[in-house]
């Protein structure tokens, strides 16, 4: 019998800290300690966590309704919270298929319970894989998704874990090369526009967690090269298709940019 993957409770983990910032309960004492310390360095990080989920909700809803997408590949999904990708997509299109990808044992443990609330018509499943192996992700996803039909590929605030900038571009481009014309890339990440965020990432690495490398807006935007942006393009995530009720009036200023773009 294979051993259960080890969940380390003595080392902080970004997915669990993110869950803490969003008000979730799927985290440990070490995550809460680092999460609180991070808020001291960059109080806007909790806002970024909440607003990133709002961006996901708006982007997935747009793709499922206006773009007619029925397949989603959410890479580096993190811990489930509220209105996860499959819930948003299947609310609009019950037949939608969603493949989540993550390699964190706690995420995968929670995934098993989460799959119970998928629709009868649709499919929701998880792949245990590291995004540094995009060829393996594509191979495994082909067991569920039809790669002759458009797929929405999602990297939601995770690519800072790529080992290098070249690796980041390789990962995105390998997956996008595998999906057909009419597919979409949905991507956001924190940027170096905020010194507090840059400092937070540096301090997080000292805690023993897997390093997270903030990059410039131009570097992140380059992941969309060769694709056609959906209006309003590559923007702060609070400005992407946001109505006044989404962000409580004036959008908060956070160092997070992203967009949605179509493969010609």
From TrEMBL:
Molecular function, one GO term: methyltransferase activity
Keyword list, A-Z: Methyltransferase, Transferase
Keyword Transferase tagged: yes
Biological-process GO terms, alphabetical: methylation
Presence of the UniProt keyword Methyltransferase in the record: yes
Source organism superkingdom: Bacteria
Protein name: S-adenosyl methyltransferase
Organism (species): Nocardia tenerifensis
Higher taxonomy: Bacteria, Bacillati, Actinomycetota, Actinomycetes, Mycobacteriales
